[in-house]
Design goal:
The protein is α+β, with helices and mostly antiparallel strands. The protein has three domains: about 75-145, no CATH class; about 150-205, SH3 type barrels, CATH 2.30.30; about 210-425, MetI-like (MetI-like fold), CATH 1.10.3720. About 50% of the residues lie in helices and about 20% in strands. It contains 16 helices and 16 strands. The protein has helices spanning about 1-15, 15-50, 55-60, 210-215, 220-250, 255-265, 270-285, 290-295, 305-315, 320-325, 330-340, 345-360, 365-370, 380-390, 395-415, 415-425, and strands spanning about 70, 75, 80, 85-95, 95-105, 110-115, 120-130, 130-135, 135-140, 145, 150-160, 160-170, 175-180, 190, 200, 200-205. Strands 3, 4, 5, 6, 7, 8, 9 and 10 form an eight-stranded antiparallel beta sheet that branches. A hairpin with a 2-residue loop joins strand 3 and strand 4. Helix 5 packs across helix 9 (about 305-315) and helix 12 (about 345-360) packs across helix 16 (about 415-425). The longest helix has about 35 residues, at about 15-50. The relative contact order is 0.09.
């Protein structure tokens, strides 16, 4: 035993064990910190996602601790089985005698209802207004009272264990329950405060929120408008930015470094500074109220995208360009046959950057397409919908999820190229 203890102490005191312990501790702390950050970042999105599947009552219920879209489980009591179906039970008094009738049919056109007496189910009873035909005789002044009602189920602790019972009569000290599995056993009296009992809940998402949102904002029209603006602008961005980045990375332009620094300097220039003159220019040439101010400027390159592409083009070996030129290829042939085939990762990343930017852009479409709801993209349409339904967060979250479907799908479909472009350039737009 003493030998084993000495060996254990020697192992614990060894530099190798200390180094491994420190490494394990550092990795564990970093992983825990990253997990905490990820949880804090994703919690609002998870809450919004869950809220999109709720209604007003479920949202109020969530304030009491129910995060998921849950509904209380209810039991209909009393009911009567007739002809293979569950029927509602009514109470009626005829000539001083109280009877229970089960509703088995109703004619909405004639207003005639058909009942059966639970005690004599073989003799149907016809009721029109307050006149009933009972056993072949006419009875006036008949007014059935509905007895059947939906009772909430609770988990009630009893001597034989906890059971799910329906609350029939709530009292301050003593309450009456019904066993849904054995209603014929009669009421069960339970002593205690029924409000302390745990209700029985079931998972019940409201998928109809998405239909309401789809129809409320005319989602197909907004989706079409946004797709046209984003895809057309993405094409213009890729064409123009690729050509400019190619020139900065390959051609011996006089003052190229100064020009590139001036171009990069425009990144820090806020859009609000040029908003008024830009809007005045587009208004003077009568482009406001159209998609042109949202599409045409992207055909003149962008500093972000030029920087991303230039940094990638500089990593490509020039020897391949020189070999192509020796074979008689011109600058555009080199770009088309040498540069672009090797640059698909960064091109896809830039295309995704612009697509997501155009998809999420709200301010420019708002000012240039004001008064043109048939041309507005999904961001403006969702905001208009939010103004109308600002008191219904479940519908607002449903519209937000509809707007996220395509960007999220594109991101996961091209995630490998997207992340590779970010790692290579070190810049995220």
């Amino acid at each position: 035993m003493a030998t084993q203890t000495a060996y254990a102490r020697s192992v614990l005191a060894s530099p190798y064990f200390t180094r491994q312990l420190r490494r394990f501790t550092a990795v564990s702390l970093v992983t825990l910190f990253a997990f905490m950050l990820l949880s804090a970042f994703l919690t609002p999105f998870a809450y919004g996602f869950v809220t999109a599947f709720k209604d007003k009552e479920q949202i109020v219920r969530s304030a009491k601790g129910s995060i998921l879209p849950l509904d209380p489980v209810r039991y209909r009591y009393p009911t009567f089985e007739y002809d293979g179906a569950t029927r509602e039970v009514y109470e009626v008094t005829i000539e001083g005698e109280t009877q229970q009738w089960a509703l088995i049919g109703r004619n909405e056109v004639s207003g005639q209802s058909t009942f059966v007496n639970i005690a004599q189910p073989d003799e149907p009873i016809s009721l029109t207004g307050t006149t009933a035909i009972v056993g072949g005789r006419v009875v006036e002044g008949v007014s059935p009272t509905l007895l059947t009602r939906d009772l909430d189920l609770y988990k009630v602790p009893l001597e034989d264990g906890t059971r799910e019972l329906a609350l029939l009569d709530a009292g301050r000290r003593t309450s009456t329950f019904i066993d849904p599995d054995h209603p014929e056993a009669g009421p069960i009296v339970w002593e205690g405060r029924w409000r302390t009992l745990q209700p029985v809940m079931k998972f019940s998402p409201r998928t109809g929120n998405f239909k309401t949102a789809w129809e409320g904002i005319n989602f197909p029209l907004l989706f079409r408008n946004t797709l046209i603006i984003a895809v057309t602008g993405m094409i213009g961005t890729l064409l123009s930015s690729t050509c400019v980045a190619y020139a900065f990375s390959r051609f011996p332009i006089p003052g190229k470094r100064v020009l590139f620094m001036v171009l990069i300097g425009t990144i820090i220039l806020p859009k609000q500074v040029t908003l008024v003159p830009t809007y005045a220019f587009f208004s003077r040439i009568h482009w406001t109220g159209t998609w042109l101010p949202l599409i045409v400027p992207h055909f003149f390159a962008n500093a972000y995208n030029v920087f991303l592409l230039r940094q990638y083009f500089l990593t490509l070996p020039r020897e391949m360009d020189e070999a192509a030129m020796i074979d008689g290829a011109g600058p555009f042939r080199v770009l088309r046959s040498i540069i672009i085939p090797q640059s698909y990762p960064v091109l896809i990343a830039v295309g995704l950057f612009h697509f997501v930017y155009a998809w999420n852009d709200y301010f420019e479409p708002l000012i240039y397409l004001l008064g043109k709801p048939e041309l507005q993209p999904i961001t403006v349409g969702i905001q208009r919908f939010n103004f109308i339904y600002d008191q219904q967060p479940h519908l607002i979250q449903a519209t937000a999820l509809l707007g996220l479907i395509l960007p999220v799908a594109l991101f996961f479909a091209a995630q490998r190229f997207f992340m590779r472009g970010v790692v290579i350039t070190g810049v995220e737009k």
